[in-house]
Amino acid sequence: MLCVGLDPDVALGSAAAVEEWCLRVLDATLEHCAAVKPNLAFFEQFGPDGLRVLLRFRDHVPDTHVLILDAKRGDIGSTAEAYARALFDVYGADAVTVNPLMGSDSVAPWLDHGARGRGVFLLTRTSNPGAADLLEQRLLGGAAVYERIADLAQRWDEGSGTVGLVVGATAPEAIAVLRSAAPDLPFLLPGVGAQGGSVEEAVRAALDSLGGGALISVSRGIANAPEGPAAAAASLNSRILAARAAAGAA
Description:
alpha/beta; 8 strands
């Protein structure tokens, strides 16, 4: 259930250094994780050369692992379709993060690609403090905005298995609410480590009826760990397994 995030720092200085850094982290962590999540912005900051690194990165992620591009795109239909072609067809993402706040027509193009075996994680209750400004606000009837997103996500998914939810590990109570509301959707849970989220609380709240259904995403807590990425990923994976066992998962 571990997802390794890749957020190369601008201090690396060059796209060549970014590529070396990414491959070093990838090689050190693949045996401990199920997915890898490059954040597009951290590659874009190096210009065209940074995006070429991302293009080549696809070739280094084995078919046994999921490549999630963290782009948080969200726009009207024609623009969303162009974004989807870029991230899925050019950069080779298996799944992407999408902002659903412009509604169904902004999500539909992503779902069309989902019908061809790709996945879409919708921002639902994010890990940052500003989530309280909008996503936690209550609608008429009492439901929070993030609960409305989960409801729409299930309607849009139509049982296809295309749609998942991004839910911050910093809010385990929201994870639990959303797991109850969306028992079958996969969750992507950022916010462990540098943002203060707890592995154990996130796993306990997120597990589905089969004892899985979630990816715990950690970026800086692995890449910048004093003990090194391999040891950090191994430790996190062990904690996830222990938390699953404690919750009664197989």
